[in-house]
User: What shape does this take?
Amino acid sequence: MSDPSEYASTFELIDLDGDGLITAAELQRLMTTIGADISDEFATHAVELIDSDGDGLISLEELTAFLSHSE
Assistant: This one.
């Protein structure tokens, strides 16, 4: 697995409230900002795909694991 610090700045851009977790709403806002409007359902499903502990949120470690498997 990659070092989480590699993705920390990207994570911080998505984690708008700075609580250390990414919600479906935060992901949806990011996608809208970059011009890719996605539905609530799509954002929720994307979080579910990345969320390995089942809490409905994405931690930096979960994002790192997901992105390092995508490389």
Summary: The longest helix spans residues 40-50.
